[in-house]
Amino acid sequence: MNRLSIFQSKYAKPVCIGILATFCLYSCVPSREIREANTSLPGGYQDSIQQDTVNSAAMNWKDFFRDEKLQELIDTALVHNQELNITMQQVAMAKNEIRARKGEYLPSVNLQAGAEVEKVGRYTSQGANDANTDIRPEEEFPEPLPNFMAGVFASWELDVWKKLRNSKKAAVMEYLSSVEGQHFMVTNLISEIAQSYYELIALDNELAIIDQNLDIQGNALKTIRIQKQAARATELGVRRFEAEVLKNKSERYAVQQEIVETENRINFLIGRAPQHVDRNSQNFTEASLDSLYTGIPSQLLTNRPDIRQAEFELEAAKLDVKSARANFYPSFEIHAGVGLEAFKPEFLTTTPESLLYNLAGDMVAPLINRNAIKATYATANARQLQAVYDYEKTILNAYIEVSNELSNIDKLQKSYELKQDQVEALTQSIDLTNKLFRSARADYMEVLLTQRDALESKMDLVETRKEQLLARVSMYRNLGGGWQ
C-alpha cells in the first residue's frame, strides 16, 4: 500500500465526519423575519380640496422667500452657521467610513523588514542542535545569533458569506442617511431664520403701533388737562390717562427688548456677532400672501429629508443583520509571503538559500459558547425592528404636521379677516369718542376703553399676520421644501 492510500484510509473518514458535523451545526443558524415597514398614506389631506401633484416643496427657497433682506440672511447662514458646518463634517466622516469598510474585504499587503539578535540556552533542543552545526569547516553557528529579514506579506479574508460587503453597503446607507440629515438641517435652518425674521418684523410693527397710540393718548391727555382747568373734568380722569400713557411706555421697552433678543437669535444662526439686522418692515399687514400647494401625501416620502433619512437608516439596519448572521459561519483567510532571511546581511542576496516564502489557508468557525454571536445577532434584529418603527413614526408625523398646518392656515385666514374688520371699526370709534369727549358728550372712561381696545385689536392683527407667515414657513418645511 502506498503512502497516499494510507493517508486516505487514515484521515479521510475523520475529515468527512468533521465537515459533515460543521454543515449540520451551521444548518441550525438562527433566523428571524422582521416585518416590512408600513409606508401607506391616505390619498389626500384631511379637509383639503386639492388632489393634484402641484407641490410648493418643489420651489427653490429663493422663489418661496422673495424678500431680498431675508434671502441675504439665509445665504449667509448656509455658509457660516456652525451647526450646519458640524453636520457637514459628520457627512465627511460617514464618507470616510465607506472607504474603511471597503478596504476590509480587499487583500492586505505589507512590507516588512527586521533585524534581531537571539541567544538560546545550550542545553535546549535548538541550542544543542546549533552547537553541532557547522556553517563552514571549523566554524560553528554564530552565538549570539543575529537575523535579518525583508519581505512582502499578504493576508486576505475571503468574503464567502458577504459579511464584509454587507458591512460596506451598510456604511453607504449610513452615508446617504447623513446626507439627508444635512438636507434636513438646511430645511430647518432656513425655516428658523425665516420665522425669526417675520417675528422681528412683527415686533417692529407692534412698536410702531404703540408709538401711534402714545401720540393719540398724548393728545387726549392734553385735552383732559385743559378740560380740568375749565372745570369740565376731574383730577381722577387726568390720573387715569397718565397711568395709561405710562403703561404703554413701559410696554414699549418690553417690545424693544424682544427686538434685541430676536436680532441676536438671527445673528447667532448666521454665525456673526450681535448687530443690527436689516429688514423690510413696511406693509406687514397689507401685503397679500401667495397660495400654497400641498400636493398629495405620497410626495412626502421623496420630499421630506427626515423620511428619507429614516429609510436609509432602515436599509443600513437590514444589512447589519446580514453581517451579524454571517458571524455564525466559518471565516476563511489566506496568508502568503515572500522575502529574504539570513543571519548575515551579505547572505541576504544568496538565493535560493536565503529565500523564504509561505502560503497558508485558515478556516475558523465558532463551535461552542456562541452566546456573544447570538447576542450580537439578536441586537441587530432589535435595531432593525426599531428602525422600522422609527421609519413609520417619521412618516406618520410628517403627514400629521402637514394636516395640522393646513387646518391652521385656513383658520388663521378666517381669523385675520375678522380682526381686520374689528380694527377698522375700533379705529373709527376712536375718532368718534374723541369728538364726543371734546364736546363733553362722552366721559374719559369711554375714551380710555376705546383707545385700549383699538390698541389691542391692532396688536392682535399684527400677531395674527405673524402667525400666518410662520404657518406658511412651517408648511413649506413640513412639505419638504428648502433643501433642494
TrEMBL record:
Organism annotation: Christiangramia flava JLT2011
Superkingdom to which the source organism belongs: Bacteria
Cellular component per GO, a single term: plasma membrane
PANTHER family given in the database record: OUTER MEMBRANE CATION EFFLUX PROTEIN, OUTER MEMBRANE PROTEIN-RELATED
Q: What is its main location?
A: membrane
Location of the protein in the cell: Cell membrane
Its membrane topology: Lipid-anchor
Q: What is the name listed in the Swiss-Prot or TrEMBL entry for this protein? A: RND efflux system, outer membrane lipoprotein, NodT family
Q: Which InterPro entries match?
A: MdtP/NodT-like, OMP_efflux
One annotated GO molecular function: efflux transmembrane transporter activity
Q: What is the lineage of its organism?
A: Bacteria, Pseudomonadati, Bacteroidota, Flavobacteriia, Flavobacteriales
Enumerate the UniProt keywords alphabetically.
Lipoprotein, Membrane, Palmitate, Transmembrane, Transmembrane beta strand
Pfam families named in the record: OEP
Which protein family is it in? Belongs to the outer membrane factor (OMF) (TC 1.B.17) family.
